[in-house]
Amino acid sequence: MPQSLHGGHGFGFKVGDPISDHNCWERPEDMDTARTVYAVDAPNTASDVAGETAAALAASSMAFQSSDPAYSEKLLRTAIEVFDFADTYRGAYSDNSNIRDGVCPFYCDFDGYQASIYPSLCLQFGVRYDVNSPK
User: Fold this and answer.
1) How far apart are CA 83 and CA 63, in angstroms?
2) What gap in Å lies between CA 41 and CA 98, rounded to an integer?
3) Is the CB of residue 38 less than 8 Å from the CB of residue 102?
4) Are 53 and 11 in contact (CB under 8 A)?
5) pLDDT at position 18
6) What is the rounded CA–CA span in Å between residue 91 and residue 44?
7) Got the DSSP string for 93-106?
8) Confidence at 6, pLDDT banded by 50, 70, 90
9) Nearest of 129, 1, 97 to residue 53 by alpha carbon
10) Angle (nearest 5°) at CA 39 between 94 and 27
């Protein structure tokens, strides 16, 4: 798992205050609002954002499989690590008191974090199956 900004194991997932960002209608390069970085780390819950991140990494691994196999493998290994975090520290990131203010009211999890971690597992299985299948 990548080192988090707080020194533990975790990852950064969002930059910017949600209220300021939604009220700002200028080009990013002209913004002068605070660029708060939000990160999740153990033992705090974040299965939804970690599951979606793992799914994106696994899908990216598939995209790079033929053009850059080493990078594809790195993406898949990271997807597995991030998924393990999601599976180990189950719960919605909007329930995580360390980051709740940075995700609600715009990105609160109302559907349950399970909807985010299972697609990741399926994508990882698909990548592993494709990598290990005879050509």
Assistant:
1) 19
2) 10
3) yes
4) yes
5) 78
6) 8
7) GGG-TTTHHHHTTT
8) very low
9) 1
10) 95
